[in-house]
C-alpha cells in the first residue's frame, strides 16, 4: 500500500513533508545535488588549470548535458525492471566511484572528461527512477505533484548555494580536494536511500535485453498521442527559457554591468522558478493548478520581449525572473503526465522525460549562442520571446486535442 494512504489530508507542502519516506528522499537529493554542483565547478577549474583551454573547459560543462540522451534512451528500462531502491543506491555508488577517480592526481584530462560522461549518463536513470518512486511513496495525486515540485525547487536553490559554496571551497582547497565533497554527497545519498526507504519490487520482469526494453518503452510512449503531447509541453518551454542564461555573459558585457550584474542575471531564472512553483503549490488547489497549466505555459516567454528595448540590468532581471515564474505550469503538467502513463512504463517515462529535459536545455543554450553570432544578444532573446511563444501555443493546442 502507498504511503500516501496514511498522509494527512491537508493540502500543501507541509503534507508532503509529513511523509517520512519522502523526507529521506528529499534529504538524499539535496546531499547528492550539492555535491554535483560543487563538483562541476571544481572540475571545470581543474580542467582549465591543466589545459589552459577555454574550449575544453566549456566542453566539461557541455558533457553534463549531452550523454543524458544516451542514458535516458538506452538505459531507461533499468528504472522498471529492477527494484527502485537498488537502482538508486547503485547509481549513487557508481557516481561516487567516478567522482573519487576524478579526484586522483593520476587521472588524465581524457579520463576526467570520460568520467564526466559517466556521471551524465547515469543521471537520467537516477532522476527517472526517483520520480517514479515518488509515485509509490506519495501516491498519484496531489502529494506526488507537490513532491516533484519540491524536488525542482531544491534543485534550483541548491544550484545557487552550490555555486557559492564551490567558489568558497576553491579559495582554500585544490580542485581535486574539492571533488571529495562530491564523493561524500553521493555516499551520503546512497546511505539515506538504502536505510531510509522501503524495498519495492520491480514494475516489470527482467527478461530481454535492457537496451531493447528501453527502446521498446520509448516507442510505446511516443506512440500515445496524449503522452507525446505532454512530453512536448515538458520540453519546449525549458528549451526556449535558457536563452537569457546562455547569453547572460555577453549581455552583461553589452550593457556594462560587470561580474556582479552577470551573477544577478544568472540568478534571475532560478529565483523566479522557485517563487512561481512555491506560490502555485501553496496557494492554489489541485484543480486550480491544472486550470493555469496551459495559459501560463502559453505566456511564459512573453517577458523576453522586453529585451527588444535593450533593457537595463533591473528591467532585464525582472523580465527573466517573471519568465521563470511561468514554470509553475509544470505542477499541473505532472498530474496529467502520471495519469496518462501506464504503471508498467512509469520508470521509463520519467527517465525519458528527465533526459529529454536536460538534453534539450543543452541544445537550447548552444543554439542561442549560435544565433548570437549573427544577431545582437538582446535581439536574439526578444526573438525567442516572439517565436518561442508561437511554438508553445502550437504545443498547447496539441495537448488540448490529445485530451479530446
UniProtKB/TrEMBL annotation:
Membrane-spanning segments: 30-50, 56-75, 87-104, 178-195, 229-248, 260-280, 292-309, 315-338, 350-371, 377-400
Top-level taxon of the source organism: Bacteria
InterPro entries, per the entry: MFS (IPR011701), MFS_dom (IPR020846), MFS_trans_sf (IPR036259)
Major place of residence: membrane
Sorted UniProt keywords: Cell membrane, Membrane, Transmembrane, Transmembrane helix
Subcellular location: Cell membrane
GO annotations of cellular component type: plasma membrane
PROSITE patterns according to UniProt: MFS (PS50850)
Topology of the protein relative to the lipid bilayer: Multi-pass membrane protein
Residue ranges constituting the Major facilitator superfamily (MFS) profile domain according to the UniProt record: 226-404
A molecular function (GO) term: transmembrane transporter activity
PANTHER family linked: INTEGRAL MEMBRANE EFFLUX PROTEIN-RELATED, STAPHYLOFERRIN A TRANSPORTER
Protein name, UniProt field: Putative MFS family arabinose efflux permease
Annotated organism of origin: Streptomyces netropsis
Amino acid at each position: 500500500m502507498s504511503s500516501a494512504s496514511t498522509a494527512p489530508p491537508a493540502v500543501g507542502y507541509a503534507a508532503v513533508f509529513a511523509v517520512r519516506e519522502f523526507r529521506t528522499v528529499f534529504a538524499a537529493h539535496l546531499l547528492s545535488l550539492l555535491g554535483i554542483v560543487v563538483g562541476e565547478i571544481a572540475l571545470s577549474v581543474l580542467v582549465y588549470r591543466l589545459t589552459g583551454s577555454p574550449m575544453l573547459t566549456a566542453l566539461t560543462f557541455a558533457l553534463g548535458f549531452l550523454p543524458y540522451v544516451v542514458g535516458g534512451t538506452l538505459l531507461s528500462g533499468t528504472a522498471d525492471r529492477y527494484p527502485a531502491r537498488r537502482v538508486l543506491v547503485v547509481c549513487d555508488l557508481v557516481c561516487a566511484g567516478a567522482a573519487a577517480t576524478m579526484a586522483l592526481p593520476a587521472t588524465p584530462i581524457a579520463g576526467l572528461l570520460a568520467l564526466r560522461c559517466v556521471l551524465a549518463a547515469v543521471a537520467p536513470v537516477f532522476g527517472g527512477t526517483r520520480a517514479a518512486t515518488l509515485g509509490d511513496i506519495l501516491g498519484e495525486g496531489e502529494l506526488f505533484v507537490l513532491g516533484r515540485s519540491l524536488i525542482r525547487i531544491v534543485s534550483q536553490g541548491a544550484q545557487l548555494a552550490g555555486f557559492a559554496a564551490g567558489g568558497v571551497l576553491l579559495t582554500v582547497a585544490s580542485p581535486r580536494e574539492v571533488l571529495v565533497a562530491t564523493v561524500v554527497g553521493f555516499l551520503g545519498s546512497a546511505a539515506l536511500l538504502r536505510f531510509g526507504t522501503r524495498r519495492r519490487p520491480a514494475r516489470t520482469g527482467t527478461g530481454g535485453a535492457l537496451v531493447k526494453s528501453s527502446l521498446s518503452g520509448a516507442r510505446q510512449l511516443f506512440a500515445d498521442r496524449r503522452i507525446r503531447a505532454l512530453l512536448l509541453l515538458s520540453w519546449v518551454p525549458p528549451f526556449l527559457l535558457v536563452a537569457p542564461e546562455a547569453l547572460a555573459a555577453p549581455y552583461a558585457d553589452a550593457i556594462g554591468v560587470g561580474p556582479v550584474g552577470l551573477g544577478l542575471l544568472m540568478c534571475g531564472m532560478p529565483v523566479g522558478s522557485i517563487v512561481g512553483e512555491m506560490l502555485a503549490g501553496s496557494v492554489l488547489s489541485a484543480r486550480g493548478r491544472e486550470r493555469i497549466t496551459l495559459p501560463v505555459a502559453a505566456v511564459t516567454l512573453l517577458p523576453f520581449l522586453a529585451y527588444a528595448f535593450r533593457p537595463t540590468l533591473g528591467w532585464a532581471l525582472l523580465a527573466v525572473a517573471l519568465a521563470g515564474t511561468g514554470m509553475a505550469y509544470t505542477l499541473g503538467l505532472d498530474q496529467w503526465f502520471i495519469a496518462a502513463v501506464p504503471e508498467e512504463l512509469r520508470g521509463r517515462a520519467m527517465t525519458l522525460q528527465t533526459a529529454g529535459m536536460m538534453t534539450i536545455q543543452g541544445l537550447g543554450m548552444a543554439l542561442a549562442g549560435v544565433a548570437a553570432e549573427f544577431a545582437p544578444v538582446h535581439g536574439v532573446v526578444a526573438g525567442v520571446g516572439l517565436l518561442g511563444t508561437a511554438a508553445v501555443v502550437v504545443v498547447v493546442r496539441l495537448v488540448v486535442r490529445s485530451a479530446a
